[in-house]
Amino acid sequence: MLVPQSPATSAAEVGIGTVWAPRLPATWGPSKALLIAELNKAFAYCDGAYDALADDNGAMMMKFGKGERTMSGILNFNVAHDFEHYGNLITYLRIKGFVPPSSEK
Q: Taking CA atoms, which of 12, 20, 49, 63 is between 20 and 30 Å from 38?
């Protein structure tokens, strides 16, 4: 498993810079403030995609990779993919000695 070694890699692990969210700026650096700002942009982008899903367009076919999927199928894939990356981040946190937020009691 690839363990992120920098905020830039960690940001990539949560989806920034993928087809799901805006690309990282060329000036990306290890700034916590910049990471938070870019995460907020990514969340807003994804919120818009999920908010656009409705009963009447969920079965609409859309380009996805080399083929097509329904809009709801693409968003379902995104949720599963997010959980995979969340697992990567949890591993990274534990290696660094942190208790993941979902494990705190």
A: 63
